[in-house]
């Protein structure tokens, strides 16, 4: 396997792992776990969980506001 293929495989694996981790945190959040519980379960510092939660909710709000604008027309 050449270096380019290896690099792409590693990058793909990292993206998949990151997506899985994000999905796990989102599932925990929507199941009603506290940010402290998510931090403890994932081993991520509490401040990082809080920052990522805020960023995800902002992104979701932007996405949903776009949908709401379409529905009102």
Low-confidence stretches: none
Please describe the biggest sheet, giving its number of strands, its sense, and whether it closes into a barrel. Answer: none
Oligomer description: single chain
Report the end-to-end length measured between terminal Cα atoms.
53 Å
Give the C-level CATH assignment.
Mainly Alpha
Q: How would you sum up this structure, described in words?
A:
This protein is mainly α. The chain has one domain (3-72): Arc Repressor Mutant, subunit A, CATH 1.10.10. Helices cover 86% and strands 0% of the residues. It is built from three helices and no strands. The model has no long low-confidence stretch (mean pLDDT 76).
Descriptive terms for the model:
flat, 73 residues, single chain, mainly alpha, 3 helices, Arc Repressor Mutant, subunit A
In a nutshell, what does this entry contain?
With 73 residues, the protein is mostly helical.
Topology of helices and strands:
Blueprint: H1 3-30, H2 35-42, H3 46-72
């Amino acid at each position: 396997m050449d270096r380019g293929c290896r690099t792409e495989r590693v990058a793909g694996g990292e993206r998949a792992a990151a997506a899985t981790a994000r999905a796990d945190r989102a599932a925990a959040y929507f199941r009603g776990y506290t940010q402290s519980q998510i931090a403890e379960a994932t081993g991520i510092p509490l401040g990082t969980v809080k920052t990522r939660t805020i960023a995800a909710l902002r992104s979701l709000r932007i996405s949903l506001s776009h949908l709401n604008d379409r529905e009102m027309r």
